[in-house]
Write a structure and sequence with these properties.
By secondary structure, this protein is of the alpha+beta class. The chain contains five helices and nine strands. 33% of the residues lie in helices and 39% in strands. β8 and β9 form a beta hairpin. The radius of gyration is 18 Å and the shape is globular. It starts with a helix and ends with a strand.
């Protein structure tokens, strides 16, 4: 039999979901970005690439949220989305890294035109979520938000300047942002997978 402590942990896990808010990327664009990332890392070890199906722009990571609070969070997201005009943004076709290319940990495809609108959308979500949900642990984010598309994570910081230069770039891709979505992140034997729970239209 399970001990009471283990049982409590299992029960908590079942009642919580690991959530984030994102702007979705169309299939063709996800494929193009993923292929660019593959060109960079074909000969670069110690890298965990993001699956093409998982590519998106994270607007807000919420963390572990009690399932009973998802409706309240959804209302806050809906309120922010409904006050924001739809817009377009551009994947500029280039690759960069956090904290920098010399000591890369997170590798991403950068956003050109539309990055300002994505930041404003993020700030609107922050304000709405903090107003409605602070009492149950939705942490405030940073004002230093940089819109990007994560394509890989490097297990140990490394210099990827040369692989990026060799890989080149892809033509810019323009995307219409008419809605955002709430996703659940699930880790299982096949790796991380994302399930879209709800979708919210911009005005």
């Amino acid at each position: 039999m399970l001990s009471s402590r283990i049982y409590d942990r299992v029960l908590i896990a079942l009642k919580n979901k690991r959530l984030f808010i994102a702007a979705e990327i169309p299939h063709a664009a996800r494929k193009a970005v993923h292929q660019l990332g593959t060109r960079v890392f074909d000969n670069f070890g110690d890298v965990r690439s993001v699956k093409a199906t998982n590519i998106h722009i994270t607007l807000k990571f919420l963390g572990n949220i009690f399932t009973d609070n998802i409706d309240l969070i959804s209302d806050a997201i809906s309120s922010a989305a409904a006050s924001f005009n739809n817009f377009s943004f551009e994947i500029d076709g280039k690759i960069d890294a956090f904290p920098n290319k010399k000591r890369a940990r997170t590798v991403f495809s950068s956003i050109g035109e539309g990055k300002h609108e994505l930041k404003l959308l993020y700030l609107g979500l922050e304000e709405s979520l903090q107003r409605a949900c602070r009492q149950f642990g939705v942490k405030a984010g940073s004002n230093d938000f940089i819109a990007h598309i994560t394509i890989a994570r490097v297990r140990h910081p490394g210099d990827i300047t040369y692989p990026i230069k060799e890989a080149g770039a892809i033509p810019p891709i323009r995307i219409d942002c008419r809605n955002i979505a709430l996703f659940e992140s699930i880790l299982d034997h096949g790796g991380v997978r994302y399930i879209k729970l709800r979708e919210f239209s911009l005005k």
